[in-house]
Amino acid sequence: MVRWMKKILSLLLAAIKRALRREHYYLDEGQNLHLVKRLHLKWSLASLGVLAIGVTAIYFANDLAGDLLGLGYGGQAGMKRENQVLKERVLTLDARVGELETSMNHLNAQGNQLRLLVDLPKLDEAAASAGTGGAAAQPLSDVISDNGTEHLQSAASTLEKMVAELKVQEQSYLQIERKYQYNKSYFAALPALKPMDGFYSAHDFGIRMHPVLGIMRTHEGIDIVNDVGTPVVAAADGVVDMAGQSGGGYGITLILSHGYGYQTLYAHLSKVLVRAGAHVVRGEVIAKSGRTGLVSGPHLHYEVRFNGICKNPADYFLDDLKASEYRAQLAAH
């Protein structure tokens, strides 16, 4: 196609050159013959008409063929069309980025809610955005119009900002996961379950009159009163530290270690149902109540120790939930 159009163009130019020349001879005073090239108006106008028609034909043929002659005007038109398409795509991208930014803001808010639920501090705005204000994009004015460049730079800046925020949220969610797992283990270790059904007094902890000795003594736990043989359950998940005779006024005793600094003690038992070293879970029956040791009647002496210091067990009970009710709810699930 290119060769064909170039051949036509060369033929037209050759014909015009021939048409524009006319030869004329004359003798000077010395009878010498001279050749004169003269331009005729009639032939000049005809030649110019032929040239205009030929150039116009070649112009349109070249345009239809995609500027095969490389004249350049077709490339500019094509660039304009490409810029228009690119601009439309940039506007679509900008809208999508806006939607992503809205979702990112929602994710940040939801992340802070989860952090509060697991007892972590909220991320402030500066931390959530990773300190980014949005980096400027590379100039693109040579590719698309100013308006398109503005939209593309805005989208690029927003995307960079969201990438930084996503990295912050990724670390935040890892913290939330670790804290959740910690809380799950920690809550399982809290002695929150009343270990036996029966009556007790929250004021039984501390200095009181000893029921057998008749003198004021420190009572390091509470007494839960019920018949001999009443099931005694673990107040929290843990490991059996000691099970058997205490060698003192507590009679048959069982001690559980729960981790996180917590221990529980169960005394005056009639029977122990677990061995030292065994793993137990909250609500599991571990013993039977009794009246062994120095007692005035059947009851369970129960202590909670945190880092070796005795605490009032009633402060840990979950709304005085009965052990039997707790076991029933666990079985239902």
In brief, what are we looking at here?
This protein has 333 residues and is of the alpha+beta class. 44% of the residues lie in helices and 22% in strands.
SSE run: HEEHHHHEEEEEEEEEEEH
Largest sheet: 9 strands, antiparallel
- In CATH, the topology of the largest domain is named Glucose Permease (Domain IIA)
What is the assigned CATH homologous superfamily of the largest domain?
Answer: Glucose Permease (Domain IIA)
Instruction: Report the principal-axis shape.
Output: rod-shaped
Instruction: Using the CA coordinates, give the radius of gyration.
Output: 49 Å
CATH arch. level architecture of the largest domain: Distorted Sandwich
Number of H/I helices: 6
Number of domains: 3
Range of strand content: 15-25%
What is the top-level CATH class of the largest domain?
Mainly Beta
What's the number of extended β-strand segments? Answer: 13
Fraction of helical residues: 40-55%
Span from first to last CA?
Answer: 82 Å
> What would you call the structural class?
alpha+beta
Low-confidence stretches: 134-144
What does this structure look like?
Strands 5, 6, 7, 8, 9, 10, 11, 12 and 13 form a nine-stranded antiparallel β-sheet that branches. Strands 1-2 form a two-stranded antiparallel sheet. The chain has three domains: 2-71; 90-189; 202-332, Glucose Permease (Domain IIA) (Distorted Sandwich), CATH 2.70.70.10. Helix 1 (2-20) runs antiparallel to helix 2 (41-64) and helix 3 (73-117) packs parallel to helix 5 (146-189). It is rod-shaped, with a radius of gyration of 49 Å. The protein has helices at 2-20, 41-64, 73-117, 125-128, 146-189, 323-332; strands at residues 22-27, 33-38, 206-209, 216-219, 222-225, 231-233, 238-245, 252-259, 262-272, 279-280, 285-289, 299-306, 309-311. By secondary structure, the protein is α+β, with helices and mostly antiparallel strands.
